[in-house]
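Regression report. Comparing outputs from two consecutive submissions.

Submission 1:
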Amino acid sequence: MGARLIAVPYDSGNRNRRMGRGPLAFLDGGAARRLAPICGTVIERVVEHREGYPMEVPMTFELQRGVAAELSAALDAGEFPLLLAGNCHNTVGAVGGYASRPIALAWFDAHGDLNTPETTASGFMDGMPLAMVSGRCWRRMTATIPGFRPLPDERLALVGARDFDPAERELLAGTRIPLVRCEEVQRRGAETALAAVLDSWSGSVAAVHVHVDLDVHDPRCLRANSYQPGGGLSPDQVRDCVRAIAARLPLAGGTLSAYDPATDPEGTSLEVGLELLELLARLGCAAADGAVSR
């Protein structure tokens, strides 16, 4: 089974700026070379803005449509899809790429990503992707993504989030999306902390897409971007969580998101990200020829 690296080098509609530099940094840092011994053939694809005048909202959904097309093509080709995203909302496109396949989504992030246009205080589109995925906002626009259907709360999990806007925290409290706190992972271990979520998914989903915003990590371990709050998980704890998920359910694919090389002068975050890609590929390519392939 091969792998497909899908890079989206945009942050808030700006190409190769700030977190938009992260996807190409992973490609330039040798991601394909490091995955080749694990998966064999590794295909690199870059999703680009092509339609009209560059405005952030239309571009957001254009890029998501491009991600959906690339991920669907990867599944058709029997490749394990790995998304390198400038912004977390690119994973909304990945959900579209799986179309009707019964996947779950494990969302590792320091933030809730559950704002809507009505709750946001900043207007930052990248604070809304989990609300988009669950059908709570931008429904007309997400309907333009081929194959996209909102995921029910029961097929989502938010892991490591610790920084919420007040209205976002209130919204989360009214959902059925489970929150696995950093303290649970640190105190009980990854397998135990995730057990209830994985129990609920077993028998109802075919595989799990693992989304990792690198700011889920503790900034004392690495600095991923300028939005990273204090606290968080260590790289070992994040990897343990990924292993715990893969021990119970096949991996459908993965996302690595929101890496800004400007905050990482020593390359620590880059290396942790590459190691995480290797782990996702090793676990994903070892699954039974892709549990969600056609």
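Submission 2:
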Amino acid sequence: MRVGWLNGVTVIAGHDFLRFDPQSQNGSSAATSFISHAHGDHLRRISQLGMSYLTPETMDIGRIFQEVAGPNMRPLRLGESIKQDDVEVIAHNAGHMLGSAQFEVRTPDSTLVYTGDINCRDMFTTKAADNVPCDILVVETTYGVPFYTFPDLTQTSVEIVEWALDQIRIGKIPVFKAYSGGKAQEVVRIFNTLTKLPVITEGAATGITDAYTRNGVKLQHVDAEAPSADELLKSGECVCVTSTSRGLLSHAKAAHAVATGWALGNRFRDVDAAFPLSGHADFQQLVEYVKRARPKELLTVHGFKSEFSSYIRRRLGIKSSPIPLIRQKQLGEYL
């Protein structure tokens, strides 16, 4: 099994050429692609790819952005697998957002897991990622340094609610800017669970929140374009969630907040509050995942890939490095 980076994580097993979260078709038109989740940096140009597998939930959200279309799309549910020749690929829960998947690759000689973005703790809208033992582990290391150790989710959620209530008491409307897919829905569910405040959503955050509800994650919200939203805004007794830099954020009474893991140690301009709410695994979660997966080799991608691979090498004694590059002209050597 050969593993490397060629506009995406590339796995070559015998005569099978697999690509995970490819960023373009460059590499091989014969490749089979697997898409881990519905964020734009992973779903990019999927309609231009060859045969592509993704969960039904990811397909549903992808249609909102018109990124999922054409006869080359194939659903692969969590827990299901496909097999071609001597290679089997199994989808496992990644815990990052609705429909997010890790992919386990099994061959007669070894196993590989590509995590994509993972979250290893239960959230309000997702369950913790499955931990999958393997020989080779390819892990995304967005927050792969010790500084990024997130506080308890309950603590962060209570702080979010308390801040919003404080803003309402002084005549402000709390408006949270968050990623339209995953983070926005987590904020909506926090207020649905811990308060009776109505939540107004805007733009893509509305469409994806509706997709969550269609797929069994019930969320109560009002679209910013609905007539009832104007009445709620006039009353001041509401919370807003948006992914844009206009609209609700421009309301005269808006108090601005962001919800992101980068709130640890970072300052945001023109923001009244920042909360470290993340759908990614933090450093400690990543380390625990590696310990339980017990790989013979660890390859890291994105974020703090050099720092995390060095830590694992030193502390756990596991062969580890950032994923190597595969050049286009090298493919003939592998296939």
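Expected: both submissions complete independently.
Actual: both completed, but the second showed a warning that disappeared on reload.
Relevant detail on submission 2: The CA atoms of residues 21 and 185 lie 23 Å apart.
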